[in-house]
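Entry for the shared binder. Reason: the reviewer on the internal report wants the predicted structure included alongside the sequence.
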Amino acid sequence: MEAWNQTLEAGPPQTDRRSSIPCQFFVQRRCRNGTSCPFSHAANEKENVAYTDPKSLSGLSDATPQGDTRSRISCRFYLRGMCAKNEKCPFAHDNPQDVADSKMEVEDDSITENWCRELKGALVRFGDGAVVSQVSFPSDFSAVRISNLPQFTTAKSVVTLLTSFDFTVPEDCVRISRPTDSSHCSADVRVEDPQFSIRLCGLLGSKRHGSPIAVPINASISQATNHRRIDSKKVYCSWHKPTKTAWLNFGTGGVAGKVGLKFSAGTYKILDQSVHCEGPTRGAGSRNPLAWTLRLSNVPALAKKEDITRAIPAAMAPRHVELSAASYDVDLPMANALIESLLLTVGPLEKWEGSLEIPGKRFKAKAWFMNDADALQAVKLFHNEPLSFNKTGKLTVQLVHSARFKILARIYDAVEQELTDHKKAWAAQHVLCTAYPPTQGLQVVKIEGENGGDVARAKTTLEKIISGEVMMKDGKPIWAPSFATNGDAYQSIKQLERELGVLIVRDKRKSQLRLFGPQLRHEKAQLAVSKLANAHPISIHVIELDVPQFSWAFKGGYRAMAEAIGNDKVILDIASSPRRILVVGSKADLIIAREILQREQAVLGEKSEPVSISDCVICWTPADNPIQTTCKHLYCSGCLEDLCFAGVKSGPGICCQGDAGNCNKVLLLTELQVHLSSTALEDMLEAAFTTHVARHPSDFQYCPTPDCGQIYRAARPARSNDSTAITSESSMFKCPSCLVTVCTACNVSHDGLTCAEHHYHLSGDYKALQAAKKELGIKDCPNCGTLIEKTFGCNHMTCSACETHICWVCLQTFPKGEQVYDHMRYKHGGIG
């Protein structure tokens, strides 16, 4: 390793062919090797402009003093395209517009991820490395509704009330409901404590009249983030900007009429904004120089008289202009604060994005609630309601349903035309599809609209498009082991892509190829790939390595093996456990590889494997769609995905395998979110939880119904001397999916029986007893289970234990003996 570091410090040789190949990390402005990088950092003039650090560009502005350090900081209002100071702004306005737009678009819906998922009927919280840190079930929660609260109660005041009763509850566990027809309100409090509702209702359930009252309510699992669900937490809020009314006086009706027509048509604008024009009307007096009047409404509040006259040619200028006061005098920061406070009365917000000074007649803000129900409630309560600071104006609140997908940028490029065709139909349904600029080789596609059903249907269509078509032949996926390496077979696939204008994505984990691109070329592509698979009839052979053997492989053994049988036939898999060498070839290739391992392991020197800085740390070949981690190690995008799934299956989490597997830095969830597609991320978290359940069989069990998939928390059997005690209700799990009731102590369904009774029913003793009872004519009392034997008399029997009257033929019970005889005559034709 020391020799490798010295090589990096010295820089590449002058004759290194890589010096003519552009460095892909330099193009992305994240090359960590600087001048020592063996790849080219040269770029043409256009590329230099596009990729120069914006901070260095900002210093070129002549409008800012040289000594002002703010000139090196990007103006956040300019990034949004709306800085009112223009050239007078002390901050930098020189960033390329496409970069600015990209930053704004990516940050538009950036909500802090809580890393909770609802999986298999449980609420699962994940930590870094995709490790399961907490699992909660609906039975772990309890909730109450506190009613008879003052009208303007807040979540904070409810927390204060609960604190007085020695309950510690976070504010985000409280939701306020405000009935429109009452002077009081109520609060729903949901806590991860199954005894919370019982204790609180005991304290507040019997208070005097006028005091808060608590009653238990259903406590469902809290809403979790998931890229596969439709998000209905977002609302758009808008309200009119403050306006003025202007009166323009003219001496002649002709001039007033012409000016009025220009304002009505939008030709004349005030501060670049169209206004509403009424008139002209004529005042008193035939010689009045101010007789003809135009009334302009919706004039921007910032407009002055000179702004109005500037919009009109001097030849038709009015003789007098009169302006009213603004419709309201609350400034924008205060208006934003008031709107946010109003929404907070419904429930907690994940994010609030107040309005900026944007063009147009309305201010526009966005809010993201913690729960879908709160967002819907906000629309019901506040849409078209008068504003507190503008009695003549109303607040508009619109609920937005959205779904986001992060996919490979190359997949988006392949299906862009197909998406464009669907966008037209979606737009007719008021469903907007937005593709954000790609970052780190991934692209976010978002669909949103006001109608949840339309968004759901568009989401289904979009999922189908971005999933591609699995390449099949004779009902089976087309696959060859040689496709898993970057050798000749894979290069032939890449060449086929270029020839047909399609994209073929390989999934080594599932041994599948997915096809994207024009539908007319799919058949030709599948035929060509099928021939490739038949032309490479080879297998994958596995050589597992112990610690000394892996050290040998890293110190040169791997390269020796690759030189002997071919670079594209040997893969060093350091993400697996144990680590292994994969030989993609014939049995003869496997024999040669094993001979090299046995012959050279003991005599190989201590010199480390000279890995190139452009090689993937997993497959040790030039990285395909390279990804660099925060610990500065390089992966193929596919290898990183494989590492993630291998890490969650082998445990204890996903760790970097750089430095020949010695890095072991736990990969942060935020980092995995950046580098993985949304589908891969969700699949990985589900796989991590599945592994967690499998490793804790004493804690979790699956519902016994086949293919149900729901899990529950297993209970350890209670120690009791009474084996006939009825199983407690708390130890029974009713599956919300298939409605089967399961005993969490013995993990089988025996509704109505104790565990001892169930096991007895399954035993041989129970079967022998049933046979003996049948032979002797003994039956159980239907009411208490006491054994009854009939030796003589009619079929009316009376249990000696519970005194229940019984029909011996069908075991139907009756409260009185006379009813038994009527029953026997009617049903059985006699009393026996």
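Summary line for the report: The radius of gyration is 38 Å.
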